[in-house]
Amino acid sequence: MTGAGFIGIIALSLSTHSIPVRPAIKSRIVAQVGPLGFAVGHSILSFAMLALLIWSAER
User: Fold this and answer.
1) What is the secondary structure of 4-59 as a DSSP string?
2) Of the candidates 20, 51, 22, which has an alpha carbon nearest to the alpha carbon of residue 37?
3) Domain ranges in the chain?
4) What average pLDDT score do residues 40-55 get?
5) CA distance 47 to 35
6) Could you tell me if 1 and 56 are in contact, meaning their C-beta atoms sit under 8 angstroms apart?
7) What pLDDT does residue 59 have?
8) What pLDDT score was predicted for residue 22?
9) Pick from 18, 41, 17: which is nearest to 29 by CA?
10) Which residues contact 56 (CB under 8 A, 6 or more apart)?
11) In this structure, how many other beta carbons lie within 10 angstroms of the beta carbon of residue 40?
12) pLDDT 10s digits, 1-35
């Protein structure tokens, strides 16, 4: 993994944590999937990004 690739994964990870919780975006997502669906989906996405970040750090 190159340094640029690792930085890209960090940026992607930060965006997946900050964009979905913005009030305007979160309200649209919650309207579609409900509060529980949002919580589960965001948790799965967060775990997947953490796994990708750890994997890329190993490389």
Assistant:
1) HHHHHHHHHHHHHHHSTTSHHHHHHHHHHHHHHHHHHHHHHHHHHHHHHHHHHHH-
2) 20
3) 3-58
4) 94
5) 18
6) yes
7) 79
8) 93
9) 41
10) 1, 5, 6, 9
11) 12
12) 788 888 999 999 999 989 888 999 999 999 999 99
Residues in the chain: 59
- The token pair at 5 is 């690739």
Asked if residue 13 lies in contact with residue 52, where contact means CB atoms within 8 angstroms, the answer is yes
* CA atoms of 42 and 27, how far apart (whole Å): 13
Token pair, residue 2, equals 């190159």
Q: Are the CB atoms for 17 and 46 separated by under 8 Å?
A: yes
Amino acid at 2: T
DSSP class of residue 1 equals -
